What does this fold into?
Amino acid sequence: MIEVISAARCVECNQCVAVCPTNVFDRVEGGIPMIARQKDCQTCFMCELYCPVDALYVAPDSEGVAGVTEAELERSGLIGGYREKVGWGKGRQPVASHEYMIKLAARAGF
Amino acid sequence: MSNTVRQGSVHLSADVLVLGGGPAGTWAALTAAAKGVRVILADKGYCGSSGATAPSGTGVWYVQPDERLREEAKASRYQMGGQLAEHRWMNRVLERTYANMNRLGVSGYPFPLDEYGNQYRRSLQGPEYMKLMRKLVKKAGVKILDHSPALELLADEHGVAGASGVRVQGGETWSVLAGAVVIATGGCAFLSRALGCNVLTGDGYLLAAEAGASLSGMEFSNAYAICPTFSSITKTAYYSYASFYYEDGSVVEGAGSKRGRSVIARNLQAGRQVFAKLDQAPEDIRPLLRVGQTNFFLPFDRRGIDPFTEAFPVTLRLEGTVRGTGGIRITDEQCGTGVPGLYAAGDAATRELICGGFTGGGSHNAAWAMSSGSFAGEGAAAYAAALGSRAAQRTPSGLSTSPLAEGEVSRGAAVAAAEFTAAVQAEVKPYDINLFRTGEKLTSSLSRLDGLWKEQRGREITRTPEGVKAREAQAMTATARWMYNSALARTETRGMHKREDYKETDNGQHHRLITGGLDEVWTGREEVAKESVLL
It folds into this structure.
C-alpha cells in the first residue's frame, strides 16, 4: 500500500491525486497531498510511476501497512526505483523499447 | 457538446458515451471519434492508469496475415477453451489486432527494434500503452471524465440513451445523454487486490442486465493467479519457472503454474502454506525476465528477496472474469448486446468468441480488448449517427434497480457496503466453492447470495462516492449469482470450469450458457456457430 509522501521531495503538482485509479489521495490547499483513503490502495504502483520527483513509496504488501518511514527509504535508496526501471523521466529510455523484450519472447514465448 | 454546471451537477450530451477508459474503452472512443461523432469517455478512475492492463506488461495476439500462421494461432488454445471459440470471430480479431498494433507503432508507441530495424509488435507495456491511448483519445477530440463512475444507464422506449453517475473527487453528479453507450468497464475480480483489478467490480454487467442485456460464459469465472502473499503482482506466467515447496523445503508434488495450480489450492485450503522459488529459470533468462515485467520484481527487491534462489510464500488471488472469459453477451458483429443503443467490449463482454472457456496468458485478452473496443466504437457511432436529430428530444429515465437519491450519504452506508462486499467475497474467494465446484456447494452458496441480493435490491443509494461502493457491492452480488447459476447449469468440466461431481467433458454440452435476470436469475443455451467444428 501507499505509505509515504515525502514532504522534502513533493512539488505539490497533485499528479498522484489525478492518476490514482482508486482515489486514495486528497488535494490539500497550500500543502502536499494527503493519503486520505489508504485502505482503498490496490498497490498498483501507478502513483509512483507518475510522480515526477520520486516523492512516493508504495510498500509491496497489498493487505496491510508496513509502517515504512521516509528516513528508512532515504537510507535504503528504494524510493523512485520503479520509475527508473520503467524508464520514465528525463534522459531515460522507456523499458518498452528494450531489446530484451524480443529476446524474452524468443526464449520464453511471452 | 453542451456543458452546464449548476447545483453541483454536470449535464452533457454526446453521440457516443463510453464507460471505462482501459484498452477496450479507449479503442472504442478512438474508433467512434474517427467516424466524426461526438464522444465522451467516463472512467471510474483515471483513463491511463485504471484497470488490469495499465500496471502490467502483456503479450499481444499479433500474428502476420499468413494463412498457416493464423491457423496455428487459432488452434493453439481451441481445445483448452473447450471448443467454444468461433472461427469467424478469431479471424476478425486477428485482423483487427494486427491493424491496431501497427497503428500503435506509427502513433509513437516505443516498440523495440529487431536486428533488421523493424518494430517488434508482439507485446505492450501497460503504463506506456495506456499513456499513449489517453493521448490519442484526447487528440481525437474525445472529452474524458476521470474519476466519474456511472451509477445507472438512462433509457427510454427506444433503447439506451446515456448514463449518470458521480464525480468522486468533487462530489458533483454527472449525466450524459448519448445516442449510444459502450460498456467497457472491465470484468469482475471481487476487490481481491489482483494487480490493477480493484476498479473491476462487475459494474458494467449490472448496468447491462438492468437494461435487459444477457451474459454469456459466466461459469468461466474462476481464474486464480499465483501471487506472493505479501504482494499484489499477479503474473502467473513467470511461475512456469518456479518449483513449489513446503515450509520444510520438501517439494510439493504436482504443483505448477498451469494444471498444477489446483494442487497449490488444495494445500492452501488445508492450511499448508506453499512456497515458490523461480529456480527453474536458466541464468541467461533471468535478466530478460526482469525487463519483461519490471514490477514483478518490485516486491522482491523491496523486501530484499532473490526470487531465483530464495523461497517465498504464495497464495492464489481471485481474478474472476478479468482473466476468466465470461461477460456481457454479444449479439452482432458490432459488439451489440441486443439492447438498442447498448454495446459491450473488452473484459466486460464475453471473450468466449475467441477463447471459449479458458484464457491462458494475456495475449488473447489484449487482442480482444482492442478489437472488440474498435468494433463497438464503430457500431455505436453508426447507430448514434442514424438517430440524427431525434436523439436530442429524448427524455430518458434511470434504470437502477435500487432507487438512487440525491443528497447526503447516510451514516452507516459505507459500513453496510463493506459488509455486503465481504459477504460476497466469502462466497467467491474460497477454492472449495469456486475452483472445485459441486452442485451441493453451489446451491448452498446461491441461497446465501440470493439473500444478499434481496437485502440490497430495495435499499436507497445516494449519488455519492459511498453510493458508488454500494452499487459495486450490488454488482458483485449479481455477478456471483450469474456465475454460480451458470456453473450449476453446466454439469460437466469444460475450459476453466471444473465440477468435482462431473469431472468429464460431455459432448452433449458443447454449447454456450447464457444467463441474466436480477431478482430471478435464469440460464439458457446458445449454440456455437457451426463452422468452428472445422478446426
User: Anything to note?
Assistant: Residues 100-108 of chain A form the longest helix (9 residues). Residues 82 and 94 of chain A are 12 Å apart (CA to CA). The beta strands of chain A are 2-5, 25-26, 34-35, 56-58.
